[in-house]
Amino acid sequence: MTEIIAPTHPFDSAIDLTPAEDGVFAGHTSAAFANMVGPFGGITAATLLRAVQQHPDRLGDPLSLTVNYAGPVAEGAFEITARATRTNRTTQHWSLELTQAGVLTTTATAVFGIRRETWESTESEMPRVPAPDAVEPSPFPEFIAWARNYDMRFVEGAVPNEDSGENPDSTSTLWVRPTPARSLDYPALAALADVFFPRVFLRRGRYMPAGTVSLTVYFHGNPEALATQADEPLLGTARTGRFGNGYFDQSAELWGRDGALLATSHQLVYFKD
Amino acid sequence: MTEIIAPTHPFDSAIDLTPAEDGVFAGHTSAAFANMVGPFGGITAATLLRAVQQHPDRLGDPLSLTVNYAGPVAEGAFEITARATRTNRTTQHWSLELTQAGVLTTTATAVFGIRRETWESTESEMPRVPAPDAVEPSPFPEFIAWARNYDMRFVEGAVPNEDSGENPDSTSTLWVRPTPARSLDYPALAALADVFFPRVFLRRGRYMPAGTVSLTVYFHGNPEALATQADEPLLGTARTGRFGNGYFDQSAELWGRDGALLATSHQLVYFKD
């Protein structure tokens, strides 16, 4: 009998953690998810969420996650410390820190909880766009490693190139799907919440130093809603409210093909023009 | 010679903290800012921000704040512990905990920083509404103590009463001004970010148990932009993207009369219908 071992998906390799002592997890950066400086912020967010999921005291599923990118994560090993700060009947609050050789690079808080059936209503409207197959993939520049893990098909607001001028609107809308394909779960959704390149690139029509300072993700989809998506593309849309004084906000929505609003996310981004 | 001592504004009394040992501040809940269960979430957010502002190591001004309401704050004394987790050249990251007799009720993270002049653009549009004087004040129900600290003039989406039916839209837009008048500063702005009643009340046309789980505020206004507002009313607008499984998100903007977008905020709210 031949045992068939499926190769680990690169995303799962990147967020893989080894539980050490109580609440401490050992991880390692993944070259496949490198950004220009340090790892893709989305993979750091996913890894922090994964730490809570793996914690033996964990209650329920992710409701919200805030990640503060305090300093650059260097290539190599890191440690995540996850601490349940308060456990209620149906919700649980977590504080997390990511360190490298004792130096803090990232802090986070997360709320997990048990969802129940209630009245529901999606008030935001899913953008009306062509089906994913009707949109051409538009690759990121080759030097951004992490983006090669996603098939991105921009309906509007693609990554600027040398011929792009300024754009009056900061909105990008795209179909996005992990490549190779992978079923949707909460860590994947957390990473996708950060898949939108900095809006200032789009407005100014060029690259410049920019990095997320703080990212918040609200998880609207329950586990069934996520499972329903399987490995289908999600529709993402992101825009900025205000740029100024070296910072801007960026808000995003992630929709399933079935019209389910799976996550909303917000971030504050540093830029240097 | 008679010394004239101005009475302390109730907001300043409510957020008043006494520095104890390193990074620990002693405070006390204020009856004037009580909500149905525990204090108004906005006053807790403002008090946490105030702790960082008072910390001798503090660098710059608030850029973002996330507050996780883990458990109810009881009437009485509390302690805030503020810890600078990382200090960079122009930004500083903070982790905070609020406890009562050793029991954790609230966690928070904050990013402070030094702003500089850059390209700027406000892409969100300020709602077009009548001037504050042309809108009637619409008081909150008398039993919500904290709301008596604000003059609120709803342009749309006022607090529902017995005759309100369901509303197809979750948007509230209002002029809001502290009463008595008080100059705008960052703690005041943090509190105003939570001044919007739970959007589910508006959609369902009635009250029900609801409470903020996690609140994030991005501060777009620099100190000069805040000072310019003096004690003038701000225009606030808030709406929800999705309600379901006992939770909903709520996003808000706070605008100056001069058209400055001063803060954007997002929260995840628990509800029981």
Automatic annotation (TrEMBL), chains A, B:
Pfam families linked to this entry: 4HBT_3, 4HBT_3C
Acyl-CoA thioesterase-like C-terminal domain boundaries: 132-270
Entries under Gene3D superfamilies matching the protein: Acyl-CoA thioesterase, double hotdog domain
Xref: CDD domains: Thioesterase_II
Residue ranges occupied by any Acyl-CoA thioesterase-like N-terminal HotDog domain in the UniProt entry: 36-113
InterPro entries, per the entry: ACOT8-like_C, Acyl-CoA_hotdog, HotDog_dom_sf, Sec_Metab_Biosynth-Assoc, TesB_ACOT8-like_N
Source organism superkingdom: Bacteria
Name of the featured protein: Acyl-CoA thioesterase
Species of provenance: Rhodococcus triatomae
